[in-house]
Design goal:
alpha/beta, 6 helices, 17% helix, globular, binds flavin-adenine dinucleotide, binds FE2/S2 (inorganic) cluster
């Protein structure tokens, strides 16, 4: 059963906390009321409410085929997320959702999928990796380009070797690294020109800082990928998450209900502007 009121947070309990990096942590949440439905589609987000502090939109980073808990991976950047970082197992949070337009996995059928992520941007894309691995025969290849500031800032590192073993083509780039680093050094955008990519049968999903997404769009378009085959997940300040308050307005769209996932052709004229 989903909460009847999409504006009313319902209580969830943390059953597991994992520290991913110095400022990124993953929490696993189960509802206090076991009747609560936890179905979601890859790319959707929940509003997490730290009682007495505030509420923030956070993507679901777990496996949509395992609807027994919500998994969220969070970077502690400000008032609410820093407070959430010190939560422990058994702590309670309010939760409402899931909200938003998911990644277009239906449009990716029989196509090669390219995921491009920067930093915490791998969190909303991880459910796509799980969905692909569970239904590999329905898609072409899955190639993941992942960039972070340094090896210490990579999230989900423990899963990399398993993903590779299962056939995911994973390339990792960092901005700076010591001599023990065996991967690429430099911006993730530099990996695009050498991608084995057929523009007619490829779909690209991108999530990361907005500036990274801008720099990624140009080389992808240069490789012949159509704007409608590039999908990006956008972030803006949110309050209601259901299209009432206008806080997340972006041109003619509301990020909360028309997105957060958009095809690039819907955004290209306004991309990179901060507020309207
Ligand atoms: C649809 C959607 C999905 C999201 N998914 C995730 C997710 O999976 N994991 C996650 O960690 N975050 C995610 N975010 C971002 C997250 O909502 C914000 O980081 C959070 O709202 C910050 O709240 P705060 O109270 O902690 O920080 P605030 O007190 O609001 O901000 C404090 C300072 O941090 C800066 N800041 C705020 N947000 C960010 C940011 N995203 N990056 C860098 N600096 C920032 C502000 O400019 C300010 O200077 C998502 C946002 C949206 C819209
Ligand atoms: S957050 Fe209120 S309209 Fe999007």
């Amino acid at each position: 059963m989903k909460s009847k009121n999409s504006l009313l947070p319902v209580p969830y309990r943390i059953v597991k906390c994992t520290q991913e990096t110095s400022d990124v942590f993953t929490i696993e949440l189960v509802p206090e009321d076991s009747q609560q439905s936890m179905e979601f589609s890859p790319g959707q987000f929940n509003m997490l409410y730290q009682f007495g502090v505030g509420e923030v939109p956070i993507s679901i980073s777990g496996d949509s085929a395992k609807a027994d808990r919500y998994i969220h991976t969070i970077r502690a950047v400000g008032t609410v997320t820093r407070r959430m970082k010190i939560l422990t197992e058994k702590s309670q949070l309010g939760l409402r959702g899931p909200f938003g337009v998911p990644w277009p996995l239906d449009k990716a059928l029989e196509k090669d999928i390219f995921l491009i992520a920067g930093g915490i941007g791998l969190a909303p894309l991880r459910p796509v990796i799980y969905a692909y691995l569970a239904n590999k025969s329905r898609y072409g290849r899955l190639s993941v380009l992942y960039g972070a500031r340094s090896p210490k800032d990579l999230v989900f590192k423990k899963e990399f070797s398993q993903w590779r073993k299962l056939g995911v083509e994973l390339s990792v780039a960092v901005d700076a690294a010591g001599p023990s680093w065996k991967g690429h050094v430099g911006a993730v955008t530099k990996l695009i020109p050498n991608l084995d990519l057929d523009p007619k049968k490829s779909l690209v999903m991108v999530c990361g800082p907005e500036i990274m997404m801008r720099f990624i769009a140009d080389p992808l378009l240069g490789r012949g990928i159509a704007e409608r085959d590039i999908y990006v997940s956008m972030e803006r300040n949110m309050q209601c998450a259901v299209g009432f308050c206008g806080h997340c307005q972006y041109g003619g769209e509301f990020i909360c209900k028309d997105g957060p996932v958009f095809s690039f052709d819907r955004l290209s004229s306004t991309f990179l502007r901060r507020e309207f």
